[in-house]
Amino acid sequence: MTDTTAAIEVRDIRKAYGELKAVDGVSFTVAEGEFFGILGPNGAGKTTTLEIIEGLREPDSGEVRLLGESPFPRNPALLPRIGVQLQASAFFEKLTAREQLLTFASLYGVDSARADEMLELVGLTEKAATREEKLSGGQRQRLSIACALVHDPDVVFLDEPTAALDPQARRNLWDVLRAIQARGKTICYTTHYLDEAEILCDRVAIMDRGRVLALDAPATLVRGLDAPTRVSLERGALTAEDARALAGAEHAHEDELSLTITTRTPAPLLSALAERGALDGLQVRTATLEDVFLDLTGREYRA
């Protein structure tokens, strides 16, 4: 990846607060138009890393280039080119959703048509006349993202945009994020929802204790794990002893509800189960990003 295609370049940045190393030698590059995720549990250093890239914090050492320029000290030339949605969003009191967007638009010299376009993008056109405090949590999150996008920035920073949302609101917001990337924008976001990142991101950096543990496309990280596939059947479909004798089966374990067979060659195993008529209630689970995280850290993933 050459410098001409890099929207973000991070080189060995570090930030400590006393004995706590919040960011401890982080490096990565984000290409223009890429959806890049920074993943990890609370306290991993995700937000601090993002704030350094945005120019909100000064690193103790290291270098950041954002759209070819240094974001710190505060760089006025970059402000119209970036959009930032923080973990905690603050809105102007007693304004409707449309008035909120119009106010943000006026700060950037953007006309009202753009504000209406953003309301449509995030699915809030019908809520245009609703005051912000009357919106649901998911609607407020979408409004926050619209405010970050109203001036048509080149790079969008989103810090846990789906946190505390219900499953339906999360998935609605996924559609908004896909639409943002489809407009050619670079997205850099943090999350501790690994399933979400696996669906949305082109590449991810998995962080913990201020360090990047792995960085690649989600599918590449999962393939590199070489984890077995788990096939679960309803209890009673087969005995554990019979399951272990099937082609491709490595191990079989039975509990009160189901029989689970592990395999690294699922095709012959599934074929053997089909021949025995044992496909009722069958579930197949392959490795996920969560498995990658557990393999890297050797401990539970902390939300």
From TrEMBL:
It is found in: Cell membrane. It comes from the Bacteria. One of its GO terms (molecular function) is ATP binding. PROSITE patterns: ABC_TRANSPORTER_1, ABC_TRANSPORTER_2. SUPFAM superfamilies: P-loop containing nucleoside triphosphate hydrolases. Keywords: Antibiotic resistance, ATP-binding, Nucleotide-binding, Transport. Pfam families: ABC_tran (PF00005). It is a peripheral membrane protein. InterPro entries: AAA+_ATPase, ABC_transporter-like_ATP-bd, ABC_transporter-like_CS, ABC_transporter_ATP-binding, P-loop_NTPase. Residues 8-234 form the ABC transporter domain. Belongs to the ABC transporter superfamily. This is ABC transporter ATP-binding protein. It comes from Actinokineospora guangxiensis.
